[in-house]
Every structure is written in structure tokens, then in C-alpha cells.
Amino acid sequence: MISIILPTYNEVENIRVIVANLLRLLEKENIEGEIIVVDDDSPDGTAAIAMGFIEKYPVSVYVRKSDRGLSKAVIKGFELAKGDVCLVIDADLSHPVEKIPAMIRPILEDKCDMTVGSRYIEGGGWEDFSLVREIVSKMAGFLAKGITTLSDPTSGFMAIRKNIINEMKLDPLGWKIVLEVAVKGKPRIKEIPILFGERKKGRSKLGFKAQIDYIRHLWHLYCYSYPVVFQFIKFCIVGISGLFIDTAVLVALVEYVSFDPRFAAIFAFIAAVTYNYTFNRAWTFEQGKRIKIVSGYISFVLVCIVGLTIRIGVMHLLIKYAEMDKSPLYIIASLLGIISATIFNFLGSRYLVFSKLFFK
After folding, report:
1. Residue 241 pLDDT > 90, yes or no?
2. 214 or 128: whose pLDDT is higher?
3. Buried residues in 243-260 as b, exposed as e (16+ CB within 10 A)
4. Are 163 and 3 in contact (CB under 8 A)?
5. What is the pTM of this model?
6. pLDDT at position 105, please?
7. CA angle 94-100-105, nearest 5°?
8. What's the rounded Cα separation, in Å, for the pair 345 and 360?
């Protein structure tokens, strides 16, 4: 049995046609299936029309009144699905219904776990050519090259084995559920060529906000795929901003309280370390909020002190043995020392400070 998930929002002009087309295909191909309409409380009456199919056909309708969005509607459809294979198709008639048998057959034959309808492989394309849409789609696909090998990662037409979905923790932003599933589930994927048709009726949901959500979603998926790299980037961002805190406190104490710069540097260091610890705990390291605050802070300070010692040690070795004591070589020596200390501080923070050792 297959479960066809149909997420909708303000599709009153298309819902009758798409549901009728799906029912006709199921009957023609002798496919046992159900159609799950997940509507985001459309004010145009989309859900009411869909409910007209319930009594006579294998159609169910679920209306979501909160936490709405296309991807989350699809996830709800996954939860409600009774079939062994879940197929997701847009309600705007842009995806070819006749391709459904080709989408589900490879999964049923255990040749793959997931199929994705692609416009960019041989046999695929656009029925109604829209240069702007194609350029946007290709640019969006290019941005995803670092996390997927899909030729068409912005496709919304997919089928997937239900037990694969059950094992995933999905948390997509915006509308690209296919990309979320492909990256997090790592299923065996086969792309199926499709001819994509432009919407004939109703309004497109692909606005500026949807594009911003896609960029945010990509960031989350890149962080998911390369956690150490992106944690290091976050760690450096926090460290650089912490440098401004250090400098601000130093200048304030020297200029306005008349502290000796060397004495003021101690308070500046404490302020910067506290700032860095707070933001690394909240942002850089996912598990940070679960650590014991006091013991984690003490460990972080100790790691930073060792990192400072490493910085000074590297500078000392470069100045003494590489004769980098003349301008501007000593600046380079300092930068190399900072890089060494930063790498140590990051590794110490990741594998000691924010490890399970200090979880509550």
C-alpha cells in the first residue's frame, strides 16, 4: 500500500482536479493506496472541498491550525500514513501524476529507499518554460552541492520507504522537505526524470520569505553534515566578538577608572572568557545547554589559560629560533600563536568542556 501525501494551502482551484487525477491513476494502475490531504487551515475552503471525497474514496483530510508550513504538513502526513511507501506531490498540478508508478516501483522492488522527481536528468525538463524559475532553481541547487548529489535538490516530488522516515528526526525550515530527508536519512536514492509544469491556477508560495527560509535551511543542513567544521566557524565568530569585549573592558578600566593596563587586562580576560563561554554554551555546541554551568565555566577558563600559554609558547619559539622578533615578523608570530591557541581552545571546548563529562 502507498500513502500519497498532498500538502495544501489555498488550493481551492486545484484540489478537485489533483485528487480526481490521483484516484483515477490508482484505479487504472491497480495500486492500493490512500490520499492524505494535509491542509494548513486554508481560508479559501480547500479542506472543505477535499472532505467531499472522504465518504466514497480512500481520502482523508487533516487540517492544521498552528505551526503551519509545507514541510511540517508533509511530516504530519508521514505520521498519518498507513502505507509502506509515502509519496509526496504538490497540489498545484506541477508534478506529473502519471509518473507515480515509476516513482514507487524502484522502492517496491528494493532497488532504492527513495525516489526524487528530477528536471535535470535525461528525460526531465520544464513543460512551460520559465527562465526566471529555472535560474532560481539551478542557483538553489548549486548552493546545496556540498550536502547532496541530487541533480534537483529543490524538487518537491518524492517517494520514500515509510520505515526510513520512522527512524529520522526531521526539523525542516520552509518548504524543502526532500532535501531534509535526503541529507538526514542518507537513503539509497534514485532520480526519476519528470517534466515540471508551471502553476496554471492559484498563487505561487515561492516568495521572498520562502527563499530566506531555504538559505536558513541550507545552513542547518550544512551544520548537520559537517558539525566539526561549522562548530569551529561558530567558535571563531564568538572568539572574534569576544575580542571586542576584551578590548572594550580594557579601555574602559584604563581610561575611566585609571587602572594599570596590566591589572585591567585581568578583568578584560575574565569578561571576554565569560562572554565566550556563555555564547559557546548557547550557540556553538548543541549539547551546551545540558552541561553543569559552574563546572563547565571553570573548565572553559582552564582551557583558555592553557590556550594562552600555548600562544605565548609558540610566539617564544618563533621569536627565539626563527628570529621573528623584528617588525612585521613578530606580528606573524603572534598570529600563528593565536591560531594554535584557537585550535587548542576549540578542541578542548568540544571534547572536554562541552562533553558528556559535565552534563547535568
Report:
1. yes
2. 214
3. eebbeebbeebbeeeebe
4. no
5. 0.78
6. 96
7. 150
8. 22
* CA-closest candidate to residue 50, choices 22, 74, 79, 19: 19
Helix axes 15-28, 100-108, angle to 10 degrees: 50
In one-letter notation, the amino acid at residue 262 is R
Alpha-carbon span 213 to 223, nearest angstrom? 15
Cell of 74: 508533509
What is the CATH architecture of 2-225? Alpha-Beta Complex (3.90)
Half-sphere CA count of 81, side-chain side, radius 13 A: 29
What's the length of the chain? 360
Strands (E), 140-225: 158-161, 189-193, 195-196
Partners of residue 118 on adjacent β-strands: 193
Element (H, E) at 62: strand 59-63
pLDDT digits (tens, 9 = 90+) for 194-227: 998 776 665 665 667 778 888 888 988 998 999 9
**Structural domain spans, the chain:** 2-225, 227-358
Q: Position 111: which residue type?
A: K
Q: Using alpha carbons, list the distances in angstroms from residue 241 to 75, 119, 279, 304.
A: 38, 44, 10, 16
Q: What's phi and psi for 150, nearest 5 deg?
A: -60, 135
Here the cell at position 160 is 520514500
Residue found under cell 524543502: 176
C-alpha cell at 257: 577608572
Whether the per-residue pLDDT at 181 is higher than 80: the answer is yes
Measured in degrees and rounded to the nearest 5, phi and psi for residue 323 equal 55, 45
- The answer to whether residue 138 scores a pLDDT higher than 90 is no
